[in-house]
Design goal:
With about 220 residues, the protein is α+β, with helices and mostly antiparallel strands. About 50% of the residues lie in helices and about 10% in strands. The strands form three sheets. It has a two-stranded antiparallel ribbon.
Length: about 220
């Protein structure tokens, strides 16, 4: 049996039934609201400094908005600090067409270790996940959670295979099991395994563990590009 998530992406239903108690989901949402509120206030000075640095570093908007798939397949606009040159998508298409190895890397992981679109400042912001600070607003309004699977563009759901339906049952996260397990240093298949494991085995204790591991993972910058 299969069904369609949102528009145009059909995925098979999994025999595993995810049953997260409503009370636990409410607690998780409460933690998201309180946690994101506190972090927005505490990190506002840093966010202002980053905004100014982006303006000085390169031409273009400070923020980057992109449609991503959220809970139950509903799309939302993800907010990030801009880390790429203007017309980044056009630059990507030109580079992958001209270089076969870059095309294979992109098709396998949906990332490029040496992405021609990323500015010098952008590379620094990505290394320490500073580009993701605006996503705290996504968490506050309910598009995302502090912890969950990474939010992906709709076309990337095809890489999730039959597990896509379960992975999008929950809100995507600012951090998650993948983020504290090596990020881009692990294969895409391993990433999907981790995202699925999180959804199936989720608990408040797991969220707490991931949040505690996120700080050293961000400080190391390992696997971030």
């Amino acid at each position: 049996m299969s069904h369609t998530i949102g528009t145009g992406v059909e995925v098979a239903r999994s025999p595993v039934v995810i049953d997260h108690h409503p009370a636990l989901r409410a607690v998780k949402r409460g933690i998201d609201v309180v946690g994101s509120s506190v972090l927005i206030v505490l990190l506002l000075p840093l966010a202002l400094i980053v905004s100014l640095a982006i303006v000085v570093d390169s031409r273009g908007p400070v923020l980057f908005l992109q449609r991503r798939v959220g809970r139950n397949g509903a799309e939302f606009r993800l907010i990030k600090f801009r880390t790429m040159v203007r017309d980044g998508e056009g630059a990507l298409a030109a580079h992958v067409q001209a270089d076969e190895s870059l095309r294979r890397e992109w098709e396998q992981s949906r990332k490029l270790r040496n992405d021609p679109r990323v500015t010098r400042l952008g590379a620094f912001l990505r290394r320490f996940s500073l580009d993701e600070l605006p996503q705290l607003l996504n968490v506050f309004v309910g598009n995302m959670s502090l912890v969950g699977p990474r939010p992906v563009p709709r076309d990337e759901l095809a890489y999730f295979g039959e597990r896509a339906a379960q992975i999008v049952e929950v809100r995507p996260g600012l951090t998650g099991l993948w983020a504290v397990s090596g990020r881009s240093e692990i294969s895409y298949e391993e990433r999907v395994d981790l995202e699925h494991r999180y959804v199936v085995q989720w608990s408040l204790r797991m969220d707490a563990s991931i949040l505690l591991k996120t700080i050293p993972a961000v400080m190391r910058g390992h696997g971030a590009y």
